[in-house]
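stage 2 :: seqdesign
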């Protein structure tokens, strides 16, 4: 799991402490909803990236015949895309926003989001554990997060400022 620290993370932590002290849990819930809304574009981009994961086989040195059998799609990328979620925790001891994938996937697909995010990985051919091949894929998970980080930070700052104003008003 990548842990990206936001410059304003201390502001979020301080706000959580102030909300708990002031017993203003309803403001914390509103802040959580605002941050969840701010996470939606990133979540959408992550799901699009999962649907567009590109892979290619790696030929063994000296292989005479390439593997050319066309296999029907099994919907793995769509299942991974549906498993991507954003979790927001505002009032916790360590407030955070997490983008996760893999929950709700069948057991045989649990490792696929991480494999698809690796530059190269190995797998058995058609489930035959005696024959293994290498596969390449382009990383898909962290790029949409990095691309949206600046906007996401700005939206969180706005949400924090709005919550601070409501807290100061009482």
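stage 2 :: out
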């Amino acid at each position: 799991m990548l842990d990206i620290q936001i410059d304003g993370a201390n502001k979020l932590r301080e706000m959580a402490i102030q909300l708990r002290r002031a017993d203003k849990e309803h403001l914390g819930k509103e802040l959580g909803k605002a941050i969840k809304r701010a996470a939606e574009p990133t979540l959408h981009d992550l799901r699009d990236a999962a649907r567009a994961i590109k892979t290619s086989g790696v030929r063994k040195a000296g292989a005479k015949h390439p593997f050319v059998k066309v296999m029907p799609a099994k919907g793995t990328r769509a299942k991974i895309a549906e498993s991507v979620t954003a979790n927001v925790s505002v009032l916790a001891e360590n407030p955070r926003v997490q983008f996760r994938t893999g929950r709700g996937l069948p057991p045989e697909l649990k490792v696929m989001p991480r494999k698809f995010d690796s530059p190269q990985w190995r797998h058995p051919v058609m489930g035959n554990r005696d024959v293994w091949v290498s596969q390449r894929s382009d990383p898909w998970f962290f790029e949409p997060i990095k691309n949206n980080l600046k906007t996401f930070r700005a939206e969180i700052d706005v949400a924090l400022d709005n919550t601070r104003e409501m807290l100061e008003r009482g």
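stage 3 :: structure notes
- The longest strand covers residues 128-137.
- The longest helix spans residues 142-169.
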